[in-house]
Amino acid sequence: MKLFDMLSISGSALAAERQRAEIVAANMANAETTHTEAGGPFKRREVVFTSPSATGFRLALASSGNFNNAPVAGSVQISEVRDDPSAPVMRYQPGHPDANKDGYVAYPAINPAMEMVDLMGSVRAYQLNASAVSAEKQMIQQTVDILKS
């Protein structure tokens, strides 16, 4: 692993966790949205992470510095942001403008407690990666100081 690979890995994780937090915040903001432009209730969205596995020739090129756009093995990327397939929650509210003929309104299948747990996990992962970046910067600075003397 090269000197700056850890910064690349933590940087990719910071970006991924920031997007995860944005998706969770959007889920929470739309927890009561019963009608969207597409029709029907808001659909909860979830983030799927992946870690590129550079192997063989690609890994050799990436580690030699000749393959600049190759993701560092161990970095974090978002492979997709997908809709949750859960069925909407039906509530009896006959006076609601979005009620069906039986008086039921379809609400998004969003559990605020679970969304908060997901958001706290995202924030914690972001903090840990920010600490890792800080530690790496300190190690690089100490390396430079040693090389100066």
How would you describe the overall organization of this protein?
There is one protein chain. The protein is an alpha+beta fold. It has a domain at 5-31 and 45-83 and 116-148. It is built from three helices and four strands. The strands form two sheets. The chain has a two-stranded antiparallel sheet with strand order 1-2. It has a two-stranded antiparallel sheet with strand order 3-4. The chain is elongated and about 80 Å long. 15% of the residues are buried. The mean pLDDT is 87.
Search tags:
149 residues; alpha+beta; two-stranded antiparallel ribbon; elongated
What percentage of the residues does DSSP assign to strands (E)?
Answer: 5-15%
**Inertia-based shape:** elongated
**Strand neighbour order, sheet with most strands:** 1-2
- For the termini, the CA-CA separation is 25 Å
Amount of helix = 40-55%
- Structure class: alpha+beta
Mean pLDDT: 87
Number of helices: 3
Number of strands: 4
pLDDT under 50 segments (min length 5)?
none
* Rg (CA only): 22 Å
Taken in chain order, the helices and strands follow as HEHEEEH
Biggest sheet features: 2 strands, antiparallel
